[in-house]
């Protein structure tokens, strides 16, 4: 069976936001983003207005892809955690459940150790949420139910619309 397309439901979206909001506070971070591996922003909390979130999401996914290539060259599956240290701000990037990328931006008011500790806990919670979403998608696929609003539209329907 192929991997079903996951659709984000409001219930799980709210749970995700609660987890990353708590991470923001407990890690004393400035911003927390959750990005899919295709570079689409799922959610962000904190000082998000400071950033071009579209660029940040796509560059983060590109960074993960590039380091994944490096990992394969040296015989690793992937590097699940990346850390970038700047003059003022630091980035902690981690892969959650092999599905999404968690980005934490923090400064001198926090520490790498604290961020890593809080990210580990949050990653487990986020993995459980995404497992639940995948199960929902699989259940709906087994029942032949589509979550996509235009799934029942055929090519003939589109042709008729524009004829």
Fold topology:
Layout: H1 10-26, E1 31-36, E2 41-46, H2 53-73, E3 81-85, E4 90-96, E5 100-106, H3 112-142, H4 155-162
Antiparallel strand pairs: 1-2, 1-5, 3-4, 4-5
Helix pairs in contact: 1-3
Task: Kindly give the count of domains.
Answer: 1
**Helices and strands: which structural class?**
alpha+beta
Distance between the termini: 38 Å
Instruction: Report the count of strand segments.
Output: 5
In CATH, the topology is named: Beta-Lactamase
Q: What do the pLDDT scores average to?
A: 88
Q: In the CATH hierarchy, what is the superfamily?
A: Dynein light chain 2a, cytoplasmic
Under the CATH scheme, the architecture is 2-Layer Sandwich
Low-confidence stretches: none
Helix content: 40-55%
Shape category: globular
The CATH top-level class label: Alpha Beta
Rounded to an integer in angstroms, the radius of gyration calculated over CA atoms is 18 Å
Q: Sheet bearing the most strands, described?
A: 5 strands, antiparallel
What do these coordinates show?
- Helices cover 47% and strands 19% of the residues.
- It is an alpha+beta fold.
- The chain has one domain: Dynein light chain 2a, cytoplasmic (Beta-Lactamase, 2-Layer Sandwich).
- α1 (10-26) runs antiparallel to α3.
């Amino acid at each position: 069976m192929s991997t079903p397309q996951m659709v984000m439901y409001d219930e799980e979206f709210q749970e995700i936001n609660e987890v990353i909001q708590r991470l923001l506070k407990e890690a004393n971070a400035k911003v927390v983003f959750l990005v899919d591996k295709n570079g689409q922003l799922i959610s962000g909390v904190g000082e998000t207005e400071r950033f071009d979130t579209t660029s940040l999401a796509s560059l983060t996914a590109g960074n993960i892809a590039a380091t994944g290539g490096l990992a394969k060259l040296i015989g690793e599956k992937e590097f699940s955690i990346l850390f970038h240290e700047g003059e003022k701000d630091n980035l902690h990037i981690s892969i959650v459940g092999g599905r999404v990328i968690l980005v934490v931006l923090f400064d001198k008011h926090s520490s790498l150790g604290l961020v890593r500790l809080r990210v580990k806990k949050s990653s487990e919670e986020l993995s459980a949420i995404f497992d639940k979403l995948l199960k929902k998608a699989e259940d709906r696929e087994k029942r032949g139910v589509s979550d996509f609003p235009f799934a029942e539209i055929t090519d003939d329907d589109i042709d008729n619309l524009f004829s």
